[in-house]
Amino acid sequence: MTVTVPPLTSTVMTSAGDEHAGIASGVNNAVARIAGLLAVAALGAVLSASFSNHLSGITPTQTSDALNAVMAGHPGSSEGGLAAFDGALRTVMWTASICAGLGGCIGWLSIRRPDVARSARPL
Known about the structure:
Strand content: under 5%
Number of helices: 5
Helix content: over 70%
Oligomer: single chain
Structural class: mainly alpha
Shape: elongated
């Protein structure tokens, strides 16, 4: 996030022009907040589904209890639960890294340099 947000914000603000700077800033912030919320929700769903997949053969309630026990660090959490959580966490990390890579590629292909005349005008 530290590497991508400042250049993206700069690109948005430069592209909008002075007369629309407030609107551009508001839209940029709103989109960033919504994207963060959706990412947390989606990655949480991926974690839950992957954890459940690694612990096949048990009910959703048992899966939820096992995940809660692993997250709380209870000594009673089984070795299988820890292994399932490790596999689920790896799945989430791969999913997040693939999404970040795709986002970088999309940005590289779609974001253009602002025209030189706009960036050369005095403030």
